[in-house]
Amino acid sequence: MSFFKKIFSKEKKETLDKGLEKSKSSFFTKLSKAVAGKAKVDDDVLDNLEEVLVSSDVGVDTTLKIIDRIEERVARDKYLGTEELNQILRDEIAGLLSETNVGEETEFTVPADKKPYVLMVVGVNGVGKTTTIGKLASQFKKQGLKVVLGAADTFRAAAIDQLQVWADRTGVPIVRQEMGSDPASVAFDTLTSAVTQEADVVIIDTAGRLHNKVNLMNELTKIKRVMQKVVADAPHDVLLVLDGSTGQNAFEQAKQFTKATEVTSLAVTKLDGTAKGGVVIGISDQFQIPVKYIGVGEGIDDLQVFNKHEFVDSFFNQ
To answer: Which ranges carry the SRP54-type proteins GTP-binding domain (predicted)?
Structure first.
């Protein structure tokens, strides 16, 4: 049993297995058809496998990398049977994630030398951004950390109210102003309050508008600049939340947001309700930005720290 197996609890593993069930079932149904009647991994099988990976939302560029890796193994090992394909895929995808993703953690932690640790959350409306913030607040609080929320998505009254609901539910303080207030002002007040309270973690919600990227860029830049008047190196992490169930649309959102601001980590939500779980593999590879969290269920504890070993194990465990 690996070290990661020991510290990744049985309950978390079961939740992860269940959350990836639709993706896994869809993938292996396609894979079975791709190798039907074939004993050896040949060009036809590889062509079919390429189609399986692309249709599983792994993405074209990442798929080609995986196929290249398998072609190298076929050339090296001379004869590989289709019955070994599952293990080969597992190995090569794990290797790919190891090159491009942190993915070693199993618990919700923040660096001890950053206090307060400032997390700015970005993403379009509807991807589960506010829910992710609420779940993060709950998980950090369970670790014994003092958390403060900032409702800097002042574009929508519903966003402020929704974050208030999560603050009440998790029992953490929230700093808010009226709809239409300056988001940077909310962020400034939040950090000032957090410093006064000696908080460990600050989570700032931001507006999820992409219709005008220049305005979004300016707004996020202003929020950062104002926060740095209170905490010099804030934000310590800019977390982009993506809806995994949208598949290729999540790639497009990642492209747009990485152009608008410096994204440093990703959360991929709603993986339990979709067969598009392969998007995690493609996004983590293509954007060279670590996937930090994944959402695999509706419950408050169903946001997990992304661990590449456990993800690959669950995805390929039949």
So the answer is: 290-303
Residue 4 has a pLDDT of 43
Q: List the binding residues.
A: 123-130, 205-209, 269-272
Q: Give, in degrees to the nearest 5, the angle at Cα 105 between 104 and 111.
A: 120
Q: Are 135 and 121 in contact (CB under 8 A)?
A: no
What token pair was written down for 280? 């995690």
- Tell me the mean pLDDT in the region 196-213: 87
User: 10 Å Cβ neighbour count for 259?
Assistant: 11
C-alpha 271/C-alpha 280 separation (Å) is 9
Please enumerate, by residue number, every residue annotated as part of a binding site for GTP.
Answer: 123-130, 205-209, 269-272
pLDDT digits (tens, 9 = 90+) for 273-300: 888 888 888 888 888 888 899 998 888 8
Q: pTM for the whole thing?
A: 0.90
Q: φ, ψ for residue 303 (rounded to 5)?
A: -90, 125
Rounded Cα–Cα distance for residues 118 and 236 (Å): 5
Q: Name the one residue in this structure whose structure tokens are 């993986």.
A: 271
> What is the rounded CA–CA span in Å between residue 271 and residue 16?
9
φ, ψ at 229 (rounded to 5°): -70, -20
CB atoms within 10 A of CB 32: 11
The neighbouring-strand residues paired with 117 are 201
Cβ-contact 203, 131 below 8 angstroms: no
Cβ distance 235 to 227 under 8 Å? yes
Structure tokens at 313: 């194990």
Alpha-helical runs (H) found in the chain = 3-7, 10-19, 21-35, 43-55, 60-77, 85-100, 129-142, 157-170, 183-196, 213-227, 248-260, 279-286, 308-316
Q: Which residues contact 310 (CB under 8 A, 6 or more apart)?
A: 4, 8, 12, 13, 16, 106
Yes or no: say if 141 and 135 are a contact pair by the CB < 8 Å rule. Answer: no
Determine the Cα–Cα distance for residues 126 and 282; give it in Å rounded to an integer: 21
pLDDT at 1: 36
